[in-house]
Amino acid sequence: MSASDLTTAPLPGIQSQSTSAIIAEHLRERVVDGTFAPGSQMNEARIASDFQVSRGPVREALQRLVQEGLLESRRNRGVFVRELTDDDAAEIFAAREVLECAAAAVIAAKPAAERSAIAAALSSVVTELNAAIEAGNEARALRLDHEFHSRFVESAGNSRLARAYATIATESLICSSHAVGAHPPLGDFGTHHEALVHLTERGDIEGIHAAVHQHLTRH
Hints:
Blueprint lengths: L18 H14 L11 H8 L3 H14 L2 E4 L3 E4 L4 H23 L3 H23 L3 H17 L4 H19 L11 H14 L2 H12 L3
Helix pairs in contact: 1-3, 2-3, 4-6, 4-7, 4-9, 5-6, 5-8, 6-7, 8-9
């Protein structure tokens, strides 16, 4: 199904200096949740109508997502949702491991009080994650997994590392949500994340590396 075939309720008009960024965020969410399926064409005119804006900001938003690797521009054909393969998934999870381990090195060197605060923030996400797993809400559990690891990397306090991770994490969520390089059952997801929280609080960098590797190679 192409994007032009999708029936979506018109979105309220946007008045902002960051119109293209706001549109990109909404479109990113639609790619992740499958509203715009892999391989579907992005209809610039339809999107502009939905957002009640001119086509200029939409074009900028689409280009932003092309640069992020979520969409691809095909010469003389238009812009399409990128179709991720099993090889793509393997590369994405390998890149995640490198970036998360880099963040772990920074976090492990922080004072104990800072690590405890980071661990407490991560623990609150794990509580929600466990609730989602118990409720059988796989989609929410996957999003909370995404939130946990994004917060972990952001906690390093390195803005460039966080930006690099953001795109990879979104691609990873798409892989999991669309079962590309299908993820295993989520039964022990909570346990894995609880272990990462405790290792983070202790500043156990080797333990974090091992836990991250084990978690990501499960996919």
